[in-house]
Amino acid sequence: MMFAEQERDLARLTATDRYRSLRPRTGVDFASNDYLGLAGSDRLRTAMTEALQRGVPVGSGGSRLLRGNAPEHEALEADAARFFGTEAALFFASGYVANTILFATLPQRGDLIVHDALIHASAHEGMRLTRANFVAAAHNDADAFEDAIGAWRASGGTGRVWIAVESLYSMDGDQAPLAALAEITDRHDAVMLIDEAHATGVFGTDGRGLAEALDGRENVISLRTCGKALGCEGALLCGPAVMREFILNRGRGFIFSTAPSPLMALAVGEALRIIADEPARRERLWALIATAERGLAPYGVTATGSQILPLVLGDAARTMRVAGAIQAAGFDVRGIRPPTVPEGGSRLRISLTLNAKVADIEALANVMEEALR
Question: Does residue 116 lie in a domain region?
Fold first, then answer.
């Protein structure tokens, strides 16, 4: 058989309750990352319709370094740099692509990347391609980062240190100790890489994220994905101008990729204006978070102080059975299994968005009580 090994691997995934498949969207949304409900907003729809009517092309037609560099890309990057208070910004087709290119390109041979043990798969993909050394530090343990740097220096390491974290972790809903890590960054003349994917739009002044106080420093680079609270697609790397210029010249994934749609760049710019103009969206989301933390706590759901509420069940098979029962009752809650989470950490990931209402949370609590029995 031509694909015998692949068939055997799929069979192993099935036997260990890790087989994945695509399904249509059904039920009340407790699974997406559309936290502010912007994906279907009238303002985004109107902005894109008007852009089409005045001739903004759907496709870019080439890489940014050829003919794919549209005025909409340039306008978005200028707007994003102003919004987040950084020297420069660079737009990518997705957060995964941006993170991969960042880690593969900026750290150099002889450098050290110290990353949180739970950092996103896209960072790991970039580190597979990097010329730098890299090591994991215990999750959200600032002392572990300090110890890793000290051990590397003691062993003769002399290059630049890069400290890589997520500000808000997508499976646990907890926050990185950014202030403590910033002190370590300064003390070691390091660079801090902050993935703000799940914080952008939800936290900070006008939705600027958890890294708001660090933006604009020459030793901080932040990633703002646009497919979550911003309701669009793509991602922005925000930081010093040298970051942008170096990726333009050395980032193979950027140089040799067709540019994102100019229409999407325009939509992201409008989304940034929406989150600044409409603080009521965040207020409604935080009210939902408070309701959910109270109402779901009796069933073991962890209150995280964020829009991401996990219920760790441990066993993958049980997790998927419980998720299936909740979905059958009309609520889109997904089970998350290894390798997305550590072994023994299978869980329900309850994501709160403005696509749900208080009554939906109350109904979900009743369904969960039955499904967990």
Answer: yes
Alpha helix stretches (DSSP H) within the chain: 4-15, 42-53, 71-84, 95-105, 121-129, 142-154, 178-187, 241-250, 252-255, 262-277, 279-296, 316-328, 358-371
Structural domain that includes position 162: 42-276
Q: Are residues 305 and 172 in the same domain?
A: no
Structure tokens at 241: 């101008």
Given 276, 301, 324, which residue is the final one in a domain? 276
Q: For 14-28, 29-43, 290-304, which range has the lowest pLDDT when averaged over its residues?
A: 14-28
Tokens of 293: 């933390």
Distance CA 111, CA 159 (A): 4
Task: List the structure tokens of 329.
Answer: 């009752």
DSSP, collapsed to helix, strand or coil, labels residue 306 as coil
pLDDT tens for 138-154 read: 999 999 999 999 999 99
Q: Are strands 331-332 and 308-314 parallel, antiparallel or unpaired?
A: unpaired
283 lies in the same domain as 272: no
The rounded distance, in Å, linking the Cα atoms of 155 and 114 is: 15
Task: Say whether both 180 and 60 belong to one domain.
Answer: yes
Residue range 277-329, pLDDT digits in tens: 999 999 999 999 999 999 999 999 999 999 999 999 999 999 999 999 999 99
Please provide the size of the chain in residues.
373
Collapsing DSSP to helix, strand or coil, 350 comes out as: strand
SS3 content of the chain, % helix, strand, coil (to 5): 45, 15, 40
How many Å separate Cα 95 from the centre of its chain? Answer: 7
Output the domain CATH number for residue 362: 3.90.1150.10
Asked if residue 24 has pLDDT above 90, the reply is no
The token duo for 311 is 């219920």
Do 256 and 285 reside in the same domain of the chain?
no
Q: Can you read off the two tokens belonging to residue 82?
A: 């102003």
